[in-house]
């Protein structure tokens, strides 16, 4: 039926991309936030990348302003990247500076390309989700403010690209564990069960949703949570209203070395380096300091094109803890049921 489902790609492609589809022969980074692609025909396509508020959450007026700029400078097309940048595709070379100034006037910076700090991604956090142990969007904003100079810098400030993601809980909607540095919301104690209310829950479903089998039946109409197996993921409260997490035990863990791409040493699942930091809005001082400390250690020591994971693989985890000043503890040992399977889940893995 017309208008139902995903449109065909050629309907949403900018005209310059449609004309040269499959014919691009080279590309280069012209300056912070600006790409240049060259086609077989010699036609040049300039793309301007724009940083957005966390979750790309903007007012209607700002969205109208972005659309107006797209009409004026790119034949009416712009695109949203997987990290929520806005990209204006097909800007004329002599109009790039003019577009950048107009974007600055509405509070949108241009940058985040090549060996720079790319836009943070995060889940919805406390605004929409009852599972979140930390408020991902405001944490992302605080980290983005601290690393802003590395987003817009005309000189490439890093050995390679830097991606930071924030997940409000262990369910990883914010993809914290597949970024160079991730912030993951955590609880430090198992959930509480209001036994008098369990009768209103689907007990078999509640038992089944636990990823580590920590929930067991207790008689015919009740359940029991084994604290020795529970990983405090917070998933069971979504299934049964009689189960609640303790907000006073909520905070965030810092994980490093994740990567979704297949370049370099291949994809990787991040490792926990700081098991817990407290929630201290609105500045989130402890979290921001931990992230910037890791960034600076990597920036000073890594080789060219060495993502954070490749840097760690080269120097080893012992040197990583030494260079960042983070103190290792037994909490860094992966004791999760199925942990060995997780270690071996990448396309490439090492013992």
Number of helices: 12
Which regions are unreliable across 5 or more consecutive residues at pLDDT < 50? 345-351
| Overall morphology | globular
Element string (H = helix, E = strand): HHEEEHEEHEHHEEEHEEHEEEHHHH
Rg for CA atoms = 23 Å
Query: How would you sum up the major sheet?
Result: 5 strands, antiparallel
Task: Find the count of extended strands (DSSP E, 2+ residues).
Answer: 14
Query: What is the CATH-assigned architecture of the largest domain?
Result: 2-Layer Sandwich
- The helix-and-strand class reads alpha+beta
Report on this structure:
The protein contains 12 helices and 14 strands. It is α+β, with helices and mostly antiparallel strands and 351 residues long. It folds into 3 domains: 9-105, 2-Layer Sandwich (Alpha-Beta Plaits), CATH 3.30.70; 121-188 and 248-343, Sulfite Reductase Hemoprotein, domain 1; 192-245, 2-Layer Sandwich (Alpha-Beta Plaits), CATH 3.30.70. The protein has a 5-stranded antiparallel sheet. Strands 6-7-8-13-14 form a 5-stranded mixed sheet, covered by helices on one side. The radius of gyration is 23 Å and the shape is globular. The protein starts with 8 loop residues before the first helix and ends in an 8-residue tail after the last helix.
């Amino acid at each position: 039926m017309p208008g139902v489902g995903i449109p065909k790609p050629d309907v949403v492609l900018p005209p310059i991309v449609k004309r040269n589809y499959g014919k691009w022969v080279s590309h280069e980074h012209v300056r912070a936030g600006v790409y240049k692609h060259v086609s077989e025909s010699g036609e040049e396509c300039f793309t301007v990348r724009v940083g957005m508020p966390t979750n790309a959450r903007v007012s209607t007026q700002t969205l109208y302003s972005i659309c107006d700029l797209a009409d004026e400078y790119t034949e009416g097309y712009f695109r949203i990247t997987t990290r929520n940048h806005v990209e204006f595709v097909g800007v004329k070379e002599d109009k790039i500076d003019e577009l950048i100034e107009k974007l600055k006037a509405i509070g949108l910076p241009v940058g985040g390309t090549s060996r720079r700090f790319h836009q943070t991604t995060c889940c919805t956090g406390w605004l929409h989700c009852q599972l979140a142990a930390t408020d991902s969007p405001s944490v992302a904003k605080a980290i983005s403010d601290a690393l802003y100079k590395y987003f817009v810098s005309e000189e490439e400030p890093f050995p390679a690209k830097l991606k930071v993601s924030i997940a409000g809980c262990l369910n990883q909607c914010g993809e914290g564990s597949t970024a160079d540095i991730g912030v993951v919301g955590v609880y430090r104690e198992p959930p509480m069960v209001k036994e008098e209310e369990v009768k209103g829950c689907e007990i078999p479903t509640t038992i089944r949703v636990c990823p580590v089998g920590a929930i067991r039946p207790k008689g015919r109409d009740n359940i029991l949570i084994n604290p020795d197996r529970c990983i405090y993921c917070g998933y069971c409260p979504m299934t049964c209203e009689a189960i609640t997490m303790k907000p006073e035990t909520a905070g965030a863990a810092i994980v490093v070395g994740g990567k979704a791409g297949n370049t370099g040493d291949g994809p990787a699942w991040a490792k926990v380096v700081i098991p817990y930091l407290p929630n201290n809005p609105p500045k989130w001082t402890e979290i921001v300091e931990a992230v910037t400390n890791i960034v600076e250690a990597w920036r000073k020591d890594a080789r060219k094109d060495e993502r954070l994971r490749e840097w760690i693989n080269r120097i080893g985890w012992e040197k990583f803890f030494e260079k960042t000043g983070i103190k290792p503890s037994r909490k860094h040992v992966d004791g999760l049921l199925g942990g060995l399977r997780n270690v071996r889940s990448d396309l490439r893995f090492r013992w």
